[in-house]
Write a structure and sequence with these properties.
alpha/beta, Lysozyme-like, 2 domains, 6-stranded mixed β-sheet, two-stranded parallel sheet, 10 strands, binds zinc ion, PGBD-like_sf, N-acetylmuramoyl-L-alanine amidase activity, Amidase/PGRP_sf
């Protein structure tokens, strides 16, 4: 995780000592609830993020109604996924709405607004998750992940973050949450070509190729599976090493004996393609 300590972002010291807490039930997620520039998510704008955290702290220290002794949040996460230390571990935070709510959960705020940047970036979701895991590992946070609006009348943390929290705050790309990207169009391997190559190349002269374009895709997939030495991974020749590697892949798929002879079949080639971005043609 990209942790930015208080010293690194230039925090002011708290006005009064922060109350120590041993543990919480979990974490509540917040948004800024104010405009956040839509272009803050651009990579070059990260140079502004520490300044935004200093502004949040300054506004909290100036808030005479709430009488905050420090930035209210436990952690602040910018659109680039960096995690800025707010009150930090084992400190009672002040953002959840009342004394009891503040004791029950830590707070993590995303630099997401009610206008402009209204949806968290994927890097930011990873950053929030990083902060939650840090609070669990080192701060005694329990398993709960909730939105500020859970149990308190507020729009915070906005609909996109609240929906993410309701799903269990998964890291982007978690299987079952987002479908894997489809193979790029045109990435096709011909089953008959690779069968012919696997029957021809091992008995031919060293480095003989038959249908090298198809074979290279299969070799790249076998290298990615850790079954073929990268040295032989892109020669386009379905030689004996490639046959051995393919046989190992067949065994991995549960085939044995003559069904794991290293000559590609439709089932294993289709599975290999679905894992490594090609589709199988006849
Ligand atoms: Zn909030
Ligand atoms: Zn940033």
């Amino acid at each position: 995780m990209h942790l930015v300590t208080r010293a690194q972002w230039g925090a002011k010291p708290p006005k009064s000592p922060l109350k120590h807490i041993a543990s919480t039930k979990g974490v509540k997620v917040h948004y800024e609830g104010a405009p956040v520039p839509a272009d803050l998510a651009k990579p070059e704008k990260h140079s502004q993020c520490a300044g935004r955290v200093r502004s949040i702290q300054a506004s909290h220290l100036a808030n005479t109604k709430e009488k905050y002794s420090d930035i209210a949040y436990s952690y602040v996460v910018c659109p680039h996924g960096h995690v800025f230390e707010g009150r930090g571990l084992h400190k009672r935070q002040g953002a959840n709405g009342n004394q009891q709510l503040n004791l029950n959960h830590y707070s993590v705020v995303a630099m997401v607004g009610d206008s402009g940047l209204t949806k968290p970036t994927n890097d930011q979701l990873h950053g929030i998750r990083d902060a939650i895991e840090l609070l669990r590992d080192k701060g005694g946070a329990g398993a709960e992940i909730k939105g500020h609006r859970d149990g308190f009348a507020t729009k915070c943390p906005g609909d996109p973050l609240q929906e993410w929290v309701k799903k269990g705050a998964p890291r982007p790309g978690t299987p079952g949450i987002e479908p894997p990207p489809p193979p790029p169009p045109g990435a096709k391997v011909s089953l008959s070509h690779v069968i012919t190559a696997a029957r021809t190349d091992p008995g031919a002269a060293q480095g003989h190729t038959t249908f090298p374009a198809d074979v290279k895709r299969v070799e790249a997939a076998l290298v990615a599976e850790g079954l073929l030495d990268p040295k032989f991974g892109d020669d386009g020749s379905f030689g004996s090493r490639t046959v051995d590697a393919y046989a190992a892949y067949q065994r991995r798929q549960g085939f044995t004996g003559a069904n794991a002879d290293g000559i590609p079949g439709k089932s294993t080639l289709t599975t290999l393609g679905s894992q490594h971005g090609f589709t199988v043609a006849a």
